[in-house]
Amino acid sequence: MTAVIESCPDQISAAHRAQYTELGYVAFQNVLSPEEVEAARVALREVTHSMMRQLETGQASLQQAPAGATKNYAGPRVVTETGCAIHFESGVDPRALTPEEAELNYRKLHDYDQQHPVFQNLVEHTKIRGFLGDLIGQEMVLKATMALSKPPFIGSEKPWHQDNAYFNWLPLDMVGTCWLALDDATIDNGCMHLLVGQHQRGPLRHHHTIDCEILPDRIDPTQATPVELTAGGALFFSALLPHQTPPNSSPERRRALQFQYRGVEAHQVSQEEFGKVFAEADGQPASCALAYENG
After folding, report:
1. Which of 73, 77, 277, 100 is closest to 173 using CA atoms?
2. How much is the pTM?
3. pLDDT tens for residues 82-139?
4. At CB < 8 A and 24+ separation, what contacts does 14-17 make?
5. Long-range contacts of 114-117 (CB under 8 A, 24+ apart)
6. Are 184 and 267 in contact (CB under 8 A)?
7. How confident is the model at residue 292, as a pLDDT?
8. Which CATH class is domain 5-277?
9. Furthest-apart CA atoms within the chain: distance in Å
């Protein structure tokens, strides 16, 4: 299936809402202008450099992965006093990197939205938070931020998952994500892949392997739809929609900002209560928190 991607409209239409309901996503090119894209790149660079300097001065700490962690769990992270963190690939020693090298080689940066005015503005952007609210049908509240980077040739896979599996907010359909490309996102460098329409299947059981992912017998990856976006494009999708990004096999870097929101009417529950809702038809809890290792 070919992804449905339009040029960014001035507002969300009834047709966009119908597509989001049926397919679980909408995608637009040119949500951000070239100037906004460049400002976000510069802000990301400045935040990363600042955090690495904080590591040098002892204002941030270096945290190693837990013993026995593998693949996406196995890399070290630099964590500031505010909780903002940079994740690196396994085998990388952040203390051996200059700030410039760290900015080119990190895997993920999270909870950075208050670290720079550019990000403070983007999370409130009419064509980001506003569009997602129009698609879901209510005002949205920021829940989490991540900057996702796939360095050339070493950027790792994020396996098939549903975002709801990582959370404990209800109702499930009041959580959604905006994924913003800061570089051209292609099949070769690890663009987003979707199982279109399969949010309608409800929760799918997850387990822990290289990451928290959907059990392989629940999905057919050959049905995946790649969503290739130019820098400034955005993908809005349901937290129930199965999605994945492959490794970066190209010489081109792939950076993206991911903003996750929940509706104002959504409420947080305990993991146990969530497991009763985010469960398969037989009642088996399907979330990451209640998943088994490799099973």
Report:
1. 277
2. 0.94
3. 889 999 888 889 999 999 999 888 889 999 999 999 999 999 999 999 999 999 999 9
4. 16/134, 16/135, 17/134, 17/135, 17/137
5. 114/82, 115/47, 115/50, 115/82, 115/84, 116/43, 116/46, 116/47, 117/43
6. no
7. 63
8. mainly beta
9. 53
Name the burial class of residue 14, with classes exposed (0-12), middle (13-18) and buried (19+) by CB atoms within 10 angstroms of its CB: exposed
What amino acid occupies position 2?
T
The number of residues in the chain equals 295
- The pLDDT mean for the chain works out to 93
Query: Rounded to an integer, what is the distance from CA 32 to the centroid of its chain?
Result: 18
Dihedral, CA of residue 261, residue 70, residue 84 and residue 161, to nearest 10: -10
List, for residues 205-232, the tens digit of each pLDDT value. Answer: 999 888 899 999 999 999 999 999 999 9
What is d(CA 63, CA 73) in angstroms, rounded to the nearest whole number? 12
Tokens describing residue 193: 């892949």
Q: What is the pLDDT of residues 125-168, one digit of tens each?
A: 999 999 999 999 999 999 999 999 998 887 888 999 999 999 99
